Amino acid sequence: MIVFLAGLARFITCAAEVPFFRMAESLLDRYGVLGVLTMAQIAYVCRMLWYASLTPATVIYVLPCEILHGLTFAALWSACCYNAAALAPDGLKASMQGVVGGVHWGLGVGTGATVGGILFAQVGGARMFLVGSLISTTSTAVSMAAYRAYPMPSKPPRGSQAAEEQKDVAKAQEEGETDCLLKPA
Question: Domain for residue 94, yes or no?
Answer without folding.
Answer: yes
